[in-house]
């Protein structure tokens, strides 16, 4: 733990939903839910307007629709999210060379490496407030909640205290006072299982946790976890802000509305996913030795299998061949709702005999069209009409697609419906112009 509040945690508020509201004027101030829109979908992000109805991340889309049926349910536009995230991360790196992204919408920043005259509370507070304004500028109006503290743990806790669009600075020396009334779940690593073990021992708050000896915590939750809880309950956290986090694995997976039962189709889908994994590995100059598959059965049982190669590879066909072999050992006769392929044990080199032409038998099989988790015209996707211009998909079904014609820079626009195969309508890639 530092002597000054020089660790900053920035969290973009309701990020995916906020990007959608930014780019779709008719949705501003209204409930928006981003995630899987099918019967088995899961909420990725809900706008604050939707959260008032109890909609939360990781909730099933089915339950979210029941709670807030009038919300806009959108499938997500990851190009737009990545582009906006890139702008924010570039801004943060202009502030300090030590920026540790945790996801697209949050990061730690080490202000000790920034060009500040000092690190006293008034100075870092003013700087953080200025930074929030700059985030709003580079993102086209998105807000961020910021926490400042003497450690990563305290900074992250602080950023949650005044959401959305807030700033909290924890004055050095007041960390334990801040934590004591909070539930133990505020501590990283205390999930439902650990929280239940602590509850059974009569431990509900950080203050109660602080009274427990380290030996007792080790007995309750194990040595490594017990030691960590003992330290964090006392606000002791010496983890540095790390500029680059090592990639440990690369994977691709898909969830399907209709259970898969055709073994040949499953093998073909795994092959396609393996080609995608290989492409991503090559793009980043990586290779890996361990190939794994993830299979979720019709009853939600999740199975995983892996195999380790003698040498690293970035070849999609090679990855696919091993993925299909792993699938052969599993009983999928009852149906499969999720398939995934991943590669871990990453390296920055490739064995020459695995980096070349596709071996015989590694060709991608001819496949029937795979079951889709959403239609051709996914709710929320950006489209372009030859006469009416840019808009986004309001909804589709039964051969009809409905489009609202508006962009981030226009007023709320009109709604029009077209045949789903209308040649005048096409998908478009959203790219906000650089300033």
UniProtKB/TrEMBL annotation:
Keyword annotations from UniProtKB, A to Z: Cytoplasm, DNA damage, DNA repair, DNA replication, DNA-binding, DNA-directed DNA polymerase, Magnesium, Metal-binding, Mutator protein, Nucleotidyltransferase, Transferase
Subcellular localization: Cytoplasm
Catalytic site: 106
Catalytic activity: DNA(n) + a 2'-deoxyribonucleoside 5'-triphosphate = DNA(n+1) + diphosphate
Protein name, per record: DNA polymerase IV
Co-factor note (free text): Binds 2 magnesium ions per subunit.
Family stated for the protein in its record: Belongs to the DNA polymerase type-Y family.
Co-factor requirement: Mg(2+)
Annotated Mg(2+) binding sites: 11, 105
EC numbers on record: 2.7.7.7
Pfam family for this entry, one: IMS
Function: Poorly processive, error-prone DNA polymerase involved in untargeted mutagenesis. Copies undamaged DNA at stalled replication forks, which arise in vivo from mismatched or misaligned primer ends. These misaligned primers can be extended by PolIV. Exhibits no 3'-5' exonuclease (proofreading) activity. May be involved in translesional synthesis, in conjunction with the beta clamp from PolIII.
Signal peptide feature range: none
Originating species: Nocardioides gansuensis
